[in-house]
Amino acid sequence: MVRDLQDAELLERICREVSEQTGQAVVVELSDICFIDSVSAAILCRMKSEQGVVFKGLNLFIKKVLELADESDKRLGSEFI
Q1: Which domain holds residue 36?
Q2: I want to staple 45 with a disulfide (CB 3.0 to 4.6 A). Which of 32, 35, 57, 70 is the partner?
Q3: What is the C-alpha separation between 63 and 81, in angstroms, rounded?
């Protein structure tokens, strides 16, 4: 899991740098991904909401994991408002 977290954080940094350099949203192709843990899913959701990163090629499993992570994040955020 540590490696997954490190990879997700690295992807987040790279996308942020590319977006800042180009002034455009980054598109990430994920069609070869068949598993994602909840921590990495939360980072991808953060990338989408904070940086406007677009994810393409999501299989149904990955799409559902990201949707659940996003819903969970929204519920947790509303508990502290």
Answers
A1: 2-79
A2: 70
A3: 28
Residue pair 51/27 in contact (Cβ under 8 Å)? The answer is no
| pLDDT at site 72 | 86
Q: How many CB atoms lie within 10 A of CB 79?
A: 6
CA dist., res. 4 & res. 36, Å (int): 8
The string of pLDDT tens digits covering residues 7-41 is: 999 999 999 999 999 999 999 999 999 999 989 99
Residue 53: name the closest of 20, 23, 16 by CA: 16
Number of domains comprising the chain:
1
- Among 76, 22, 72, 25, CA closest to 50: 25
Indicate the length of the chain as a whole number. Answer: 81
